Amino acid sequence: MSRSMVTLDANEAAAYIAHHVSEVIAIYPITPSSAMGEWADQWSAENKKNIWGTTPLVVEMQSEGGAAGAVHGALQTGSLTTTFTASQGLMLMLPNMYKIAGELTATVFHIAARALAAQALSIFGDHQDVMAARATGWALLCSNSVQEAMDLALIAHAATLKARVPILHFFDGFRTSSEVMKIEQLDEDDMRFMIDDELVRAHRARALSPDNPFMRGAAQNPDVYFQARETVNPFYARMPQIIQDTMNQFAARVGRQYHLFDYVGAPDAERVMVIMGSGGEVAQEAVEFMHARGDKVGVLKVHLYRPFSVEHFMAALPKTAQKIAVLDRTKEPGSAGEPLYQDVVTALMESADGARPMPRVIGGRYGLASKEFTPAMVKGVFDELKKPNPKNHFTIGIHDDVSHTSLPYDPHFSTEDPATTRAIFYGLGADGTVGANKNSIKIIGDETALYAQGYFVYDSKKSGSTTTSHLRFGPKPIHSSYLIRSANFVACHQFNFLERFEMLHVADHGAIFLLNSPFAPDAVWERLPRSVQQTIVEKQLKLYVIDAYKVARETGMGGRINTVMQTCFFAISGVLPRAEAIAAIKHSIGKTYGKRGKVVVEKNFAAVDATLANLYEVQVPTNVTSAFDLRPPVAAGAPAFVQNVTAEIIAGRGDALPVSALPVDGTYPSGTAKWEKRNIALEIPVWDEDICIQCGKCVFVCPHATIRAKVYDPQCLDGAPEKFKHVPARWKEFEGLRYTLQVSPEDCTGCTLCVEVCPVKNKSETRLKALNMMPQPPIRA
Ligand code: SF4
Ligand code: SF4
Fold it and tell me: N or C end of the chain, less CB within 10 A?
């Protein structure tokens, strides 16, 4: 049977199943799970049906606690009900989750697993939230990839009806929830095959109803509570086999076979890693690479974490395993070890029969709050296991100079397939770069036989900050759930990024570097910082430039450079032959903008053609000539903490900060934001002092307090630069004083609010006001 190949992320994949097999969906958005609720809401608004032909009722509650309560209530009426959440949202659901499990109610919650707010809030991914739910009596089923998020979502919905144990289906927040990947889409017949209508009827029959009155959820005293709590044991004892049988049923139809614990690697492995989540994909890539070179290593990827089946775990573990490293993506301060480690140790102890030597087990932490986890780190852990006395309770991926837990590793170890195209794009939040890249993945994923993966790194400041897109395309399935460290295509969509941070350290030798430049091909070299020139020369990069803003303006696209930059990528990256690539992008434009009419489509076609006419390869000189270099992240006069910590974070070197650099309790000095000069505005407001009426509205409206008015004594002007603007203050009470309105160019975001609010029009040129947006670089220079 041939199913569609689709390009989507795990949030959409899980929501797609959940919406098809539910009747009630209670939601409350929380990053990074929000998209699941948004998809469900949208599909119900579009009247999309579930597999029984009804439109699921989607209700947004006042909090996650309310959503869980609504789920509990709907379940008690016999509805097939679900929700989506993450992090603190899951914490708010815990009280209801105990009730739902205690009443043996079939349901699935889909979780984009995320860090919990401890010393600081973090929106990024790890397993702290789901680990905090492991005592609730819910099964914990983990998907490691986008394909698994769709497959195991369906397996979860099918299995919970059989087992009557609710299932918390989770995958890694951001790394999996937001990773765009080409996968095979399950169809409605697959869902009907997996969901047994008899079990749905049985679920309904357990509903509270005046037609069939009974009582559920009473209070119990010391005489019976304990015994009643023990009644559920057989349900949990049966659960692992029910899940495995459901996985087998799925495999018989779809062809993808999952196990509670999936083993990959040498059949006679001596060193084995046990891991759960997207880290399992990374470990698989590293293990396959090392095994092919003769290393006896393997990885056991955990799917069903609760109930933890000792029997299935031992059956999946190679009998040859002598050393085991268990990796937890969570932290439990003060524990004897993190939870997965403790379960593995218990499983081995309980299975010890003297027939085979007990393996040496070590446990460690990795990847908290989406900290990168790479094949190099996997290798570092395997190298540690080789030692006679490997370090236990280790960390990997950080430099712990306080408790000395961290393991060393060689960051240059790489398992990337040379046949995979690896591209990195630096853009500005909301400049269209991420949208264009998602579109490129869809074009290549949907219209070619290539596999495609996209991952997008944002910082918490969202709009107006840097976005980095990591795209892979290749002939084989992609397991690389980590950022690209060595790219054969690098694009910089904002010229001013060049002097702000290093970006070509990720470029491979001979890679293509595409630069959106306001400077012509024969003038751009002298405008590049010295270290950028040096890297281009040393790595023999091919440099291409385009003035994307000019092309966008001239083709009626305004400030949107997404189509222009995307066309450049298709034209020069070599992922597809050039003519085929341009035809594909035009086909995609027709599909995307067709509904908006011919004019919009033609405008975009014109932008594609103009792009090709304005894209130039620069003849790279052999010499480094630039007289300037990257600007320091903060001014020299900044306090020590800002120099040593904040500046490193601003410069993108936060990963290298040692444990000792950070406060123990999340307490930071205040007033440090002023040292961060983001310098992101392409245009800034320029004051026309002659017509300004000094109303102060612009000062009042600026969301960043970037524009300030001052009234001062004329003597303060002694020594001021000649071009410093000032006029007499217009108020009676300030007679004789001077007035200046000043913008801080490096803090301005270019939002234009101040210009919009300015009430004064220039009578000689009415398109102008007393404040007007002008290109920033010449003014700053
Ligand atoms: S453009 Fe926006 S950020 Fe810049 S000064 Fe005006 S209001 Fe402030
Ligand atoms: S809003 Fe316009 S007129 Fe009012 S102070 Fe600002 S620049 Fe001057």
Answer: C
Q: Which ligand is nearest to the CA of 699?
A: 2
Cβ of 685 less than 6 Å from ligand 1: yes
Reduced to 3 states, what is the DSSP secondary structure of residue 743? strand
Ligand 1 lined by 745 (C-beta under 6 Å): no
Ligand 1 mutation pick, 461, 701, 707, 772, max ligand atoms within 8 A of CB: 707
Q: Hey, is 533 helix, strand or coil?
A: helix
Q: Hey, what CATH class is 5-211+226-253 in? A: alpha beta
**pLDDT computed for residue 462 by the predictor:** 55
CATH of 683-780, one of 2.40.50.90, 3.30.70.20, 3.30.450.40, 1.10.510.10: 3.30.70.20
What confidence tens digit (pLDDT) does each residue in 592-634 have? Answer: 888 889 888 998 899 999 999 999 999 999 999 999 999 899 9
> Residue 546: which residues within 8 A CB-CB, separation 6 or more?
514, 515, 516, 517, 564, 565, 568, 611, 614, 615, 616
Query: How far are the Cα atoms of 243, 264, 275, 373, 392 from residue 126, in angstroms, in the given order?
Result: 24, 23, 13, 11, 21
Query: Is the model's pLDDT at 459 over the cut of 90?
Result: no
How far, in Å, are 23, 151, 281, 545 from residue 44 at the CA level? 10, 22, 33, 45
The residue assigned the tokens 């002694």 is 718
CB-CB neighbours of 129 under 10 Å: 27
Ligand 1 centroid – CA 771 distance (Å): 10
Q: Which CATH class is domain 421-618?
A: alpha beta
Ligand 1 centre to CA of 464 (Å) is 12
Check: CB of residue 260 under 8 Å from CB of residue 347.
Answer: no
List the chain domain ranges. 5-211+226-253, 261-396, 421-618, 645-675, 683-780
- Rounded to the nearest 10 degrees, what angle do helices 146-163 and 197-205 cross at? 50
Ligand 2 in reach of 205 Cβ (< 6 A): no
Mean pLDDT over 288-313 rounds to 98
5-211+226-253 and 683-780: identical CATH topology: no
